[in-house]
Amino acid sequence: MNQKLALIIFAFAFMVAIVAGFYSPEREAPAPAAAMREGLRKTREKNASKEAIPAPSPHSSASARNPASAPDPRTSEPPLTKKTYSGLNEEAFNRKYGDEISFSRDDTRVVRMNAIAGRSENLTANQRVSDFHSANASELIGRAREIFSDSRALLGISNDIQFLAPKSTPGDPSGHGQGQVVFQQAIDGVPIYPGGLVSVLIGPDGELRTLDSSVYPSIQVENVASIAVPLESEPVLFVTQSAPVTLLRRAYVIQNRGVQSVVDATTGAELLKLNRRIR
Amino acid sequence: MNLFLTRSLTLFLAAVSAFSCAKNSVTKSTTGAEYCPESIPASPVAGTTGQGLAFELDPMIASGNATLSPASSLIGNYTSSVSLANLQGYGNLKGTYVDVISDKCNESYGSYSDSNDFRYPHSDERFAEVMSYYHGNRFRSELAASSSLLPASTFLMIANCNVKDNAYYSPPYGSQPPFLCMGYSSTYSATTSFSDDAEVIYHEMQHGVTGHAYSMSEDFNKLNFDEAGTMNEAISDFVALMQSDAALVSPFANTDFSRWSLGQFFSTNSERGASKCPLWAAGYSGGCTYFNKSASGFSSLNRYVSFSYPDGLGWPYAGPATGATLKSVYQDPYASFEEIHQAAPVFSGALFDIFLAIKASSGDGPATKRRLIRLVVETIKTLPKYSVSNPSPVTMPLFATSLLSVASGSTAGTFSGSEQTAMSSALSARGLTNLTSIADGWAAKGPGGIAVQAGTFYYETASTSGVRNYKMSPGDTGMLWFDVMNSQSTTAAAPLLKVTISDSTKATFVNNLAKNPGYINSTTAFVRYSKINGSAIVTAMNTGSAAQQTGITNSYFGPAVGAGVVPFGVNQDTALYVSIPSGAGTGSSVTFTVEVDTANKTSATSSVTFPVTIQ
Hints:
- Chain A is of the alpha+beta class.
- In chain A, about 25% of the residues lie in helices and about 25% in strands.
- Chain A has helices spanning about 5-20, 30-45, 60-65, 90-95, 135-155, and strands at about 100-105, 110-115, 160-165, 165-170, 180-185, 190-195, 195-200, 210-215, 220, 235-240, 245-255, 260-265, 270-275.
- In chain A, α1 (about 5-20) crosses α2.
- The two termini of chain B are about 50 Å apart.
- The chains are: A alpha+beta, B alpha+beta.
């Protein structure tokens, strides 16, 4: 999509969104609004330097059959400052991935989804992915992207929140094991640490087993990096306060023989020294 | 320049590398052979199988001598010829499953043989490298056979690691690989090391499996005394016990973990294990026949301790002299009741009970081991992760129910109905399932309040007056403990405290995850206590004479036992660090509200308030 078209869609969507008051928690958004949100999403996605919205898995057509969008649970913020969310609502999510999935919440956001482990025998055709291999990293990540995309609204992850390319631990080659995919929240390629993770556990038939989120929905960066980058270090956005607003400081992590040091990227001060050795 | 990081990264990224050793010259070992080679061939020079000498588990097992001392000059007599499999053929101890380097060679390869002949006597430093390779490869081969090889890439081990009286697993971060460090004994440095104890190798390696199974990006251990940390240790002990089970014959018990290094290297026996009661308590040699998860399994009069959940958590597995009173053990100021290694035997015991039951019914120990490794690994994957609302979400009962759930499906292989029943029975017998619920509203402020005694607000930095007066004064930073009391007969299991401060101008939590791992913001932080006793266990532990009664109470920070001794549980790991702003007015008040969640709550968390006056 070229930039002009994206801007037009963005402006149009923005106006309609104001008129509609974005989403209503009582009703499912009409299809045109969903399309506009998609336009917004794509615009922001294009503007994000890193991966934002995971693409659906090519192995499943279920998403096409369940295009329902989620209501925005936040009603306290003024409409003009509201963020946009995409994905399924709880009912649609259960319909697609299984009624047995339970949701644990932190305030209004889901922080954990838990399907009944070992339920493979009872999967419906809708819940499984045909010819799925959890040992295949690309298949695993594809399915995780689809699940993550469908769960963003439930998790309270607005479309502007960025993630690094996912990391995966495929299931074992026997084909029966579970594979895990982790999406790391980031800003412009720099990971937020600690936390800011969405971990998706997928069963051998592509079914969702568990999903955990420690994503920070509201973040604020407090400093700019100015010191020389320390040798053997990794840049991070270090969490100095988790909630209600997550405060982040640009920092560098150095780990030497299991002892981790987090150094402020502005002052050079040590923000944390943590012994991660496990005896 | 961080030499280690550079070296280890190089090791992992260069599958076939010819990198230079940092040493300037080749060292000759005791046998005169080349040691710490300056370069490794760019292409294979040897086959995938080599020869070496190693202990079958440890010198005691190898010798059959249960009283063999680490100081003995005879240790080297008990090595055996072993085959070293899965080598990559570069003449060093780099294999498909493990990659052994040494601190003796500046974090690089030590042993070298272009014929893969690594038969070094025990007196040679390279023996530790061979021992690490042999048992590391052996264990990871078992993981592969269990479809549980995590991490999948070859695993870095540092033999002769420059760390005293310890061995550890270092988790990965960013591009830095995980590794094992096998340290030395400061007492017996001339005669033995931690690499001589294969169970320690298995234990540390399992930490890597557990960590990878749980998350690539998040530590399993969370708060200082959380049950995930305890289970991490317990799972490592359990897997090590299974791995060594087949080699154990009388007089060695297959339930005792690390009889060589933990049992011998320290002034106090620090063995752990899977028995139903401690080595020093009544009935150990008779099979702990009194074992019971209820209060009947405990008695200060009869010296009964049952390793059951939650009341049996924290009692040392070994250490006290046989016949020691429970009072003397409990009131030992160095008893470390909540420490995660010490609290492990309940959980490792339950898992080992499952192993023994299925092994007995199937008649196949090795197969049972592999099936249970897979079951545990697949269960770990399903466990919940950190969230701001619950930074320490994994408890032993949660793991137990998850294990049964995974076992009922096909993810971890198939377990028959009778095998699932055996698992359920073992977990229930240890108290990990079918917990007795504790009634809502069980928590109250204990007699110590926020200050169990003078001294429980410990100043890390002195007040402006410079006097450690154990009062909260403007400008102070110190540690706080909340004495929560249980009014019910049932013990509160795995209490997770969410503490909120009413007024941030009067007090704030110290923003440092090393001090407050459960820090959320300046007025909210979490901390985990081990358990808060119900009246049933309190009664059982105060039977007999005054010399026998333990003094255990139903509030967490029980009274001090002896002059100058801090109350039970008061230490840095149970503390929340708090700062009093310099502008907090003397005479003003602030309230700490403590919401306590437990693993056996009926329906709701219990709340207790602790008002404090700034003085």
